[in-house]
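Could you join me in thinking about how sequence relates to backbone shape in a protein? We need material for that, and I hope you will provide a protein of your own picking. Once you have written the record down, we can walk along the chain together:

…
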Amino acid sequence: GSLGAISYYSSPNGATVDSSGDVFISTGISCCTATPNWIIEITSAGAADQVVSNFASTITSMAVDASGDVFFTTTGSGDVYEVAAGSYSASGAGSPTAVISSGLKTALGLAFDPAGNLYVGDSGTGNIYEVPFVASGGSSSSALQFSSMYLVAAGLPIGSPITMAGDGKTFLFGNNDANVYEQTLGAGNVGDVATGSSATATM
């Protein structure tokens, strides 16, 4: 197909796509941008919604759940923020809430599996954590249990998991040595440290 460009947002530094095909773009700080530290949703109909505007820190990774809740991390922080679906539109941004504010050194990398569980990478420790999803009784609008964050992989030989993608078992990471790594999480009960294969370069 043809390659199109969204050119009216300066310094894009990240993108993700939700299950309906809407594209979410984060912008960084530059000398020329009018939209510093924003997240913009480009809907399948072509509309542009403001998800986050003028956040205090540079947004480093994003993920969107099946309900349209947007989660993101920022530079040098262990926090993970959520913007609830329905709180943002073309006319105004939502209000980010810190849903994880302790326990992580440097949150960098977010991914959802098909069951709705959220996986968070910590580049400060090389660990991956799972925030389990339950059908009801969650601690946020998306029923994610942020009070029950489980370690699922520990001490990976990866300095910066700048990107995470996967189905809950396999994740890809970017590293500072110009390699791309894949980590397959081992089978086991939730909360077990994964016993899967060691991370190895795949590219």
